[in-house]
Amino acid sequence: MKIANIDLGEKPVLLAPMEDVTDPSFRLICREQGAAMVYTEFVSAEALVRDIASTTRKLTIDDAERPVAIQIYGRDADSMVEAARRVEEAKPDIIDINFGCPVKKVAGKGAGAGMLRDIPKMLEITRAVVDAVKIPVTVKTRLGWDCENKIITDLGPMLQDCGIAALTIHGRTRSQMYNGEADWTLIGELKNDPRMKIPVIGNGDITTPEQAAAAFERFGVDGVMIGRASFGAPWIFHDVTQYIREGHWTPLSIDQKFGLLLRQIHESIGRIDEYRGILHIRRHIAATPLFKGIPNFREHRIKLLRAETLSELSALLEEARARVAEHDLYRTKSENER
């Protein structure tokens, strides 16, 4: 799959842009694990134009991450154009426009998925941003505002006509938020529309290598994007890409997985500070599948999520690693005895 002149290879798997998740450290780890392209946290156009420090810091990228996209959102064409020009100066490979964020503080103000209620403005902003910069511009959106207005099959060609280089679609409406199951049917229908000449990337509920491979085969998408399934599990990109390439995958060892989690913690602390760095990484600790199936682990999980110092957290993780290794050994032995 190519986005403009950026070759992402055959059947690429991409890391989705996620607020408070896709920081520089996590993006780089996911790239190392096999993600074909990564996206920054989304950047508010208005905040960027006002030079809000916390927003401008999101433009920091490392060459080791490439290809990397910076995602922007806003509800006004002028601010989006100015933001896009500033983003271009940060030298990402791609600028992505967020027309899919469903949260109230974004969509409720007409930005993100809120644009699905004002298609003329969405198209106006898209054309303006494409015309304002020299690097490729892409769009990420949803099926529609609600189940009565799933408009993506009509919207896709219109966005393409604005000059975008690729389109990513999350298989839910805004009203669904992240509830229910993602519906890939319309994503596949749009991909197979002969009018579509640009890559179509599918997103939503891909949590296993088998699901990713099935999405390519069943719906014909050019790429698959993974979001929430990467929380606390950046190795999902290793598993998925190896499975797609070879038809099987060899899981990372428990020590390797804990090593990646510890690396995230150390790099988060190094980027911010000890207390806030640990707070930032808690969603990964809470969501990681490493602890799934470990008996009587609830109390230990609570301790992990309450730890406030690196020394305390490291000790708790080492104890958790030993328990996970013991459980894995027991499970493997039991399977071999069957």
Q: What is the compact description of this entry?
A:
This protein has 338 residues and is of the alpha/beta class. 47% of the residues lie in helices and 12% in strands.
Please explain how this structure is put together.
Helix 4 packs parallel to helix 6, helix 11 (254-271) packs antiparallel against helix 12 (274-287) and helix 11 (254-271) packs antiparallel against helix 14. This protein has helices at 24-33, 45-49, 53-56, 77-89, 104-107, 119-132, 152-161, 185-191, 209-219, 236-246, 254-271, 274-287, 298-306, 310-337, and strands at residues 2-3, 6-7, 13-15, 38-39, 43-44, 68-73, 94-99, 137-142, 167-170, 200-203, 223-226. The protein has 338 residues and is an alpha/beta fold. The termini are far apart. It is globular. Strands 3, 4, 5, 6, 7, 8, 9, 10 and 11 form a nine-stranded parallel beta sheet that branches. A hairpin with a 2-residue loop joins strand 1 (2-3) and strand 2 (6-7).
Helix and strand arrangement:
Layout lengths: L1 E2 L2 E2 L5 E3 L8 H10 L4 E2 L3 E2 H5 L3 H4 L11 E6 L3 H13 L4 E6 L4 H4 L11 H14 L4 E6 L9 H10 L5 E4 L14 H7 L8 E4 L5 H11 L3 E4 L9 H11 L7 H18 L2 H14 L10 H9 L3 H28 L1
Parallel strand pairs: 3-11, 4-6, 5-6, 6-7, 7-8, 8-9, 9-10, 10-11
Antiparallel strand pairs: 1-2
